[in-house]
């Protein structure tokens, strides 16, 4: 009888122990689910539909953004803007968490007082930015821009290229007639001879030259590297470092995909930029896509800040060492 009682007690204890373990597993699973739900952050992305940012568009189209963000319990919202300044305005208004753009408008945003930081590269390309003249123009040397109407987007990285081109030709902005024009309006103005030259980026450079509507006077080769960067608000990045790292990983996966599968990548995103897949492949050849920020990249961006400070485009010096934050790249395994 005593043996039976002992057996019953032992069985009861075993059952309770197993029930406790099972309940513990259930509680653990429930806690994980709850934590994931709590961390279901929405990353609001301010985008620009230009091939300069192809890797991010590929990451979106091929699902890399969804996959990487899902791993950290996050999702994203995507808004297209026509220019970097408009992205800056949206971020400043609290409507977006991150934005990607060229080096100069990013620095201008920081100088204006926005609490942001550069978290990674997107691409660079010396040939992806150029001074164009009409197909039948007799301008063959930058020195001939003296007294001519030259269009560019004020505050864009095109303005910086033009400054460098003019300097190399012994000219300044005082020697030309500056025309502040939206990029999309420049092709018609150039063909209509309302302007003599236009400083444009991709897709305009490849599209206009391929169609025989313009020719390159000079591009950024040996003059300007032309970095495209992503910046984030510091508040969002500090609260959600894993989300920033997931974004970087998605972008890098897309960068590698473009490198190894250019035709397939072109077919996926050409429609976003209003070009054919064939032209998209040509554009890819003018750009290098990577999230990594090398020492050369950082120095290049610092040079841009010095230029806009010297030209009194900005009045407040930017602490570039604080502005460029590579810790997220390191945590994502992109930069060692």
UniProtKB/TrEMBL annotation:
A GO term for molecular function: ATPase-coupled transmembrane transporter activity
DNA-binding as UniProt keyword: no
Entry keyword annotation includes Transport: yes
Signal peptide stretch: 1-19
Keyword annotations from UniProtKB, A to Z: Signal, Transport
Primary localization: periplasm
Gene Ontology CC, one term: periplasmic space
Location in the cell: Periplasm
SsuA/THI5-like domain span: 55-265
Protein name (database record): Aliphatic sulfonate ABC transporter substrate-binding protein
Species this chain originates from: Clostridium chromiireducens
């Amino acid at each position: 009888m005593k043996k039976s009682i002992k057996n019953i007690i032992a069985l009861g204890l075993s059952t309770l122990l197993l029930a406790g373990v099972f309940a513990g597993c259930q509680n653990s699973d429930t806690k994980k689910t709850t934590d994931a739900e709590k961390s279901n952050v929405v990353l609001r992305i301010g985008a620009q539909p230009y091939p300069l940012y192809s890797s991010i568009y590929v990451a979106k189209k091929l699902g890399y953004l969804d996959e990487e963000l899902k791993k950290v319990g996050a999702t994203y919202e995507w808004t297209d803007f026509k220019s970097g300044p408009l992205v800056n305005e949206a971020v400043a208004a609290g409507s977006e968490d991150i934005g990607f753009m060229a080096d100069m408008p990013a620095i201008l945003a920081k100088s204006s007082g926005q609490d942001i930081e550069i978290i990674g590269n997107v691409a660079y390309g010396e040939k992806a930015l150029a001074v164009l003249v009409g197909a039948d123009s007799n301008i063959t040397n930058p020195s001939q821009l003296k007294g001519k109407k030259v269009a560019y987007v004020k505050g864009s990285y095109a303005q910086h290229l033009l400054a460098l081109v003019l300097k190399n030709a012994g000219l300044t902005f005082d020697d030309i007639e500056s025309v502040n024009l939206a990029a999309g309006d420049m092709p018609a103005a150039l063909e209509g001879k309302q302007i003599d030259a236009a400083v444009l980026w991709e897709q305009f450079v490849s599209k206009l030259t391929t169609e025989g509507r313009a020719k390159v006077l000079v591009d950024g080769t040996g003059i300007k590297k032309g970095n495209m960067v992503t910046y984030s608000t510091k508040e969002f990045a500090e609260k959600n470092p894993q989300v920033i790292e997931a974004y970087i990983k998605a972008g890098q996966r897309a960068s590698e995909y473009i490198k190894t599968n250019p035709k397939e990548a072109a077919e996926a995103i050409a429609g976003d930029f209003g070009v054919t897949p064939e032209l998209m492949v040509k554009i890819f050849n003018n750009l290098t896509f990577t999230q990594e920020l090398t020492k050369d990249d950082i120095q290049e961006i610092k040079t841009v800040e010095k230029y806009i400070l010297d030209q009194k485009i900005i009045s407040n010096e930017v602490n570039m060492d604080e502005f460029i934050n590579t810790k997220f790249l390191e945590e994502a395994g992109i930069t060692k």
